[in-house]
Write a structure and sequence with these properties.
Number of strands: 27
Number of helices: 14
Structural class: alpha/beta
Distance between the termini: 9 Å
Strand order of the largest sheet: 25-26-1-27
Shape: elongated
Strand content: 25-35%
Bound molecules: uridine-diphosphate-N-acetylglucosamine
Length: 417
C-alpha cells in the first residue's frame, strides 16, 4: 500500500495552483444527467472521487471522457437508474446522484451511504424532501428504491438544518419538476452556487442561490453547457496551512477571497501576512505562529468543518491555546490521535478540542483515517522535525490531486512510495 514519506522543516517557496473544487464537481457531474447534449466541464480535479463519479455516469450509460482537466459528459444514452453497492461504498457522497436520477428516469435505486469516517451520515432530509416532491420511497435492506407516479412536482421545503447534500438533491430534483419549489434554510456554500450557475447555463430557472431561500421554477428540458468549476477553497486553506507551519512565503493562485472569509482572519491572528490580488494570494508566515484563539465550525459563511483538521495542525505549533468546536459532524477529531503521535498537545471533550501549541512537532509513523484528517497530517509533517511516514493516503487522494508532486515543486521534501 502506498505511503507518503515527508522530511519536515523545509521552507516552501514559489507559486502553486489551487485545483478545481471536488464538492462542486461532484454535484455538477450528477447534474449532467439532466441535460440533453454535451457538457464540457473545465478545471475538474483529477482525484479518486471524480473517478468514481465518472464510473457511475458510465455505468448509467452516459459517455464521459477526460482530457487534461476537462471532462466531457454526454448523458443522452442514459439507460439505467441504479447505482451498485460497490460504487456507493467507494464514495458515500454518491447520494448526490439520487435527485438527478429520479428526475431524469422517474425511478432510482441505490444503497444507503451508511456510517462513514465522519460518523453517521443520515439522509433523512434528502428523502423527506423528495417525498414532498412526489417521490415514493421504499427503504429496505439498506437499499433505497424510488418511483415517481407521474412527474415530480414543486414543493415548499423547510430544511431543519442547511444540509449541503440535501439542498443539492432538492435542486437537482426541482429543476425539471412541474411548478415551483422553495427551499427555506438552504445551504449557502459556494459549491451550491456553482451547481446553480451551471444549471442556469443549461436553462434552469433558479433564484436566490447563495442565500438561505432558493426558488426554483421547473422547466421542461435542459441543454448541455460549458462550465468552469470554481477553485477548491479547502485545498487553498490546506496550502496556506502548509505555508504557515513551515514559516514560508508562498503564492497561491486561484483564490476567491469571499470563499475564504472565515479562514483568512485565523491566519492573520496567527501572524501571517497576506496580500491578495487578481486571485493570487501571497502569504508570508512568521517563524513562530501565534494561537488564533478559537475556530467554531458552522455552515457557510461560517468556518468550514472541512478546514478544521488542517487548521488544527497550524494550532499545534502556534504559541498559546486554541479552542476548536466542531458543530457539524459527530466524529471529526480522528486526526487528533495521530497529531498527538507527532508531539501535539490536544485534549478532546465531545465537540471541543483544546490545543496547547508546542515549540515543535517531531516526525513519526501515522495512519490517515479520512480525507481532511489525511491533509492535516501532511501539513503537520511538513512542519515537523525529522521524518514522518503517512499511511492511508488513499483518503488524501479522494480530494487532493497529486498533492505530493505539487508540494515537492514548491520545495517540500515529500515522496510517495
Ligand atoms: C458536504 C460536503 C462535505 C462537508 C459537508 C459540510 C460534499 C460532497 N461533501 O457533505 O465535504 O464536510 O457538506 O459542509 O459536498 N444531516 C442529517 N440528515 C441529512 C443530511 C445531513 O442529519 O439528511 C446532518 C449530517 O449528519 C451532518 C450535517 O447534517 O451532521 C451536515 O451534513 P451535510 O451538510 O448534508 O453534509 P454533506 O452534504 O454530507
Amino acid at each position: 500500500m502506498a505511503k507518503l514519506i515527508i522530511e519536515g522543516g523545509k521552507k516552501l517557496e514559489g507559486e502553486i495552483d489551487v485545483q478545481g473544487a471536488k464538492n462542486s464537481a461532484l454535484p455538477i457531474l450528477s447534474a449532467t444527467l439532466l441535460s440533453n447534449g454535451e457538457n464540457i466541464l473545465h478545471c475538474c480535479p483529477i482525484i479518486s472521487d471524480i473517478n468514481v463519479a465518472t464510473r457511475i455516469l458510465r455505468y448509467l450509460g452516459c459517455k464521459a471522457s477526460i482530457n487534461d482537466h476537462t471532462l466531457i459528459v454526454d448523458s443522452s444514452g442514459m439507460n439505467r437508474c441504479d447505482i451498485p453497492e460497490n460504487l456507493m461504498r467507494e464514495m458515500r457522497s454518491s447520494i448526490v446522484f439520487l435527485g438527478a436520477i429520479v428526475a431524469r428516469a422517474g425511478e432510482a435505486e441505490m444503497y444507503f451511504p451508511g456510517g462513514c469516517e465522519l460518523g453517521p451520515r443520515p439522509i433523512d432530509l434528502h428523502l423527506s424532501a423528495l417525498r414532498k416532491m412526489g417521490v415514493q420511497i421504499d427503504e429496505r435492506y439498506g437499499c433505497i428504491s424510488c418511483r415517481v407516479r407521474e412527474r415530480l412536482h414543486g414543493a415548499k421545503i423547510v430544511l431543519p438544518f442547511p444540509s449541503v447534500g440535501a439542498t443539492e438533491n432538492i435542486i437537482l430534483a426541482a429543476v425539471l419538476a412541474k411548478g415551483t419549489t422553495v427551499i427555506s434554510n438552504a445551504a449557502r456554500e459556494p459549491e451550491i452556487t456553482d451547481l446553480c450557475d451551471y444549471l442556469c447555463k443549461c436553462g434552469a430557472k433558479i433564484y436566490g442561490f447563495g442565500e438561505s431561500t432558493i426558488l426554483i421554477d421547473g422547466v421542461d428540458s435542459l441543454e448541455g453547457s460549458v462550465h468552469t468549476i470554481i477553485p477548491d477553497r479547502i485545498v487553498a486553506a490546506t496550502l496556506m496551512a502548509a505555508a504557515a507551519v513551515t514559516g514560508s512565503e508562498l503564492t497561491i493562485n486561484g483564490i476567491i477571497t469571499s470563499h475564504l472569509d472565515a479562514v483568512l482572519p485565523l491566519f492573520e491572528d496567527a501572524g501571517c501576512k497576506m496580500r491578495i490580488k487578481d486571485g493570487r494570494l501571497k502569504i508570508s508566515c512568521p517563524k513562530r505562529l501565534r494561537a488564533f484563539k478559537s475556530a467554531r465550525t458552522m455552515p457557510y459563511p461560517g468556518f468550514p468543518t472541512d478546514a478544521q483538521a488542517v487548521m488544527m495542525s497550524v494550532a499545534t505549533v502556534a504559541k498559546g491555546t486554541t479552542v476548536f468546536v466542531e458543530n457539524i459532524f459527530d466524529s471529526r477529531y480522528r486526526h487528533v490521535e495521530d497529531l498527538t503521535r507527532l508531539g501535539a498537545s490536544i485534549k478532546v471533550a465531545n465537540k471541543v478540542a483544546v490545543v496547547e501549541g508546542v515549540e515543535k512537532l517531531f516526525g513519526a509513523k501515522v495512519v490517515a483515517k479520512e480525507l481532511r484528517g489525511a491533509a492535516s497530517l501532511v501539513v503537520a509533517a511538513l512542519g515537523a522535525e525529522g521524518t514522518t511516514e503517512i499511511k492511508g493516503i488513499n483518503f488524501l487522494e479522494r480530494g487532493y490531486e497529486n498533492f505530493e508532486i505539487a508540494l515537492a515543486q514548491v520545495g517540500a521534501d515529500i515522496k510517495k512510495i
